[in-house]
Amino acid sequence: MKRISAPTLMPMQPYNDCVSSILDEPLKNRLQSISNTIETHANLYIERAAHGNTYTINPILHARGADPFIVNDIRKSELINLYDYNMVQRHPGRTTYDQILVSANEKCPFCGGIGRPKSLDHYLPKANYPQYSVLPQNLIPACRDCNTGKSNDIALEPGQQPIHPYFDHDRFFVDQWVFGRIIETHPCSIFFFTQMPAGWSEIDFQRAANHFSDFDLSKRYSIQAAEELGVVVDQRKGYLAGCSPDEFSNFLRSVSNAPSLFANHWKKIMYQTLAGNRWFCSTEF
Ligand SMILES: [Zn+2]
């Protein structure tokens, strides 16, 4: 929903760094011995993600608690531990972790910046794709709500894939697909919804709509907007009291058009919705 730049790290750097901090020599040697295969997996991921096709990568599906072999004699738990211990808790892996975390400039890309990233989220969940547990291109800075709210459902159809902030096509970040509607009550509120832009494929729109619903963005945006609406109403009662409905609408539209707000930013949509609503612009609060 909000584009951020992909980590400039070489795909295998965190893997090599994390393996280097393992104290258990036999485990370290075993993980080093599969690095070529991990690199092949990494290249496949990057190629598929660039085409919005990560759903074609087969997940590891197994009974709860099972610990299957993933590559040769390396088990799923060993690849997950590589992330949990050697990347999250130890240097030099932690340095890379922090480097990716700060790259989002304090704005979570999944919700479009309403939350601040607190941790890294695996775009393809590590439980089902353990070969990507420390692949930097699979690690996305995410806020707490997005990280805990993201369903762990595996995308097996193209339309189920969340929007990938590093790799997905510009249309997801540049075209407007979030819209708002005023609920004309006192106090009023704004309902956010998705609508398919002209020229989009059905699958791309399914992805955007599923992303919006998976991260609970309609509700979360309405909560943000409720607070901001209070500010707007205070301005209308205060220094904007003398404005005609058209002048007030123009003011709201100018806020909506601020270059700092990307296409589907909740605030942009909110001000656009208010500016286009005659009832709101002509109401005496
Ligand atoms: Zn978020």
Strand content range: 5-15%
Ligand set: zinc ion
Shape summary: elongated
Largest sheet: 2 strands, antiparallel
How many separate structural domains?
A: 2
Question: Which secondary-structure class do the elements indicate?
Answer: mainly alpha
Order of neighbouring strands in the sheet with most strands: 1-2
Mean pLDDT: 95
Ends apart, CA distance between termini: 34 Å
Total count of strands: 6
Helix and strand run: HHHEEHHEEHHEEHHHHH
- Identify low-pLDDT runs: none
Our count of helices gives 12
The Rg value, from CA coordinates, equals 22 Å
Helix content: 40-55%
Describe the fold and architecture.
This protein has twelve helices and six strands. By secondary structure, it is mainly alpha-helical. The protein has two domains: 13-151, no CATH class; 171-282, no CATH class. Strands 1-2 form a two-stranded antiparallel sheet. A hairpin with a 5-residue loop joins β5 (178-183) and β6 (189-194). 36% of the residues are buried. The model has no long low-confidence stretch (mean pLDDT 95). Bound molecules: zinc ion. The site of zinc ion has 8 residues, from α6. Zinc ion (ZN) binds next to α6. It comes from Pseudomonas koreensis. GO terms for molecular function: endonuclease activity. Keywords: Endonuclease, Hydrolase, Nuclease. This is HNH endonuclease.
